[in-house]
Amino acid sequence: MMVAVALLAMALAAAAGDRPHLAVVAAVLCAVVAITGLVVFESTVRRDHSDHHTTPRLLSDSWQRAPRLRRRG
């Protein structure tokens, strides 16, 4: 998401500097990066819920099982 924020700043600066083509390219890249980041996060949450993890863990291999009463089936 930090890359998306940097691309947004680049798009705004290009628009202010009268470079419309660069502004459009930066804005499209910003949208693509932001959507990709959200999709990765949401797919991690969905997988962790299906595996009954207690909280989403994108970069961790260790996890704890949810208590039996909270499991989704």
Protein topology:
Elements: H1 2-16, H2 20-50
Question: Would you write up a description of this structure?
Answer:
The chain is mainly alpha-helical. The protein is built from 2 helices and no strands. It is rod-shaped and about 60 Å long. Helix 1 packs antiparallel against helix 2 (20-50). 63% of the residues lie in helices and 0% in strands.
Order of helices and strands: HH
Oligomer state equals single chain
Query: What profile does the largest beta sheet have?
Result: none
Q: Radius of gyration in whole Å, from Cα?
A: 19 Å
Instruction: State the total count of DSSP E strands.
Output: 0
Short synopsis of the structure:
The protein is an all-alpha fold and 73 residues long.
Which tags fit this structure?
single chain, about 70 residues, mainly alpha
